[in-house]
UniProtKB/TrEMBL annotation:
The chain crosses the membrane at residues 6-27, 118-136. InterPro entries: MAPEG-like_dom_sf, Membr-assoc_MAPEG. The keyword Transmembrane helix applies. Its main location: membrane. It is found in: Membrane. Gene3D superfamilies: Membrane associated eicosanoid/glutathione metabolism-like domain (1.20.120.550). It comes from Ideonella paludis. Keywords: Membrane, Transmembrane, Transmembrane helix. This is MAPEG family protein.
Amino acid sequence: MTNAQHLMLSCLVLVGLAFAVGSRMLFCRVREMRSKRVHPQAAATRAQMSERLQDTQAADNFQNLFETPVLFYALCAMAMAQQRMPDWLVAGAWAYVSLRVVHTLIHCTYNRVMHRLAAFLASFVLLVILWAAWVISGL
């Protein structure tokens, strides 16, 4: 597999993770709203939703998957567009995706904050390093 294919696949795995978490969020919300008999209009805003529902882990994680991962997608897109995809970037991309999967598993299961923070911090620092190294290597 080429480095471009690896970068594309790592992005697709992260997209798949977002779809899986989004599906879980929908399932959890519908189940809880039915069990508590919450009318959908009564939870039309995020504030109303948080007042009425307690199981927000999947929703919180789904939101997380549209924060720093956007910078990962941008880096991969720029690297592929410029055809500048060194081996270390591919390895870093897979490490980043793996850390995001770990973060999601923690967040959507037992949700120990310090474990989740460690996974987030590791992925965030790695992303900063990947960006810095990619920029510097292009100078």
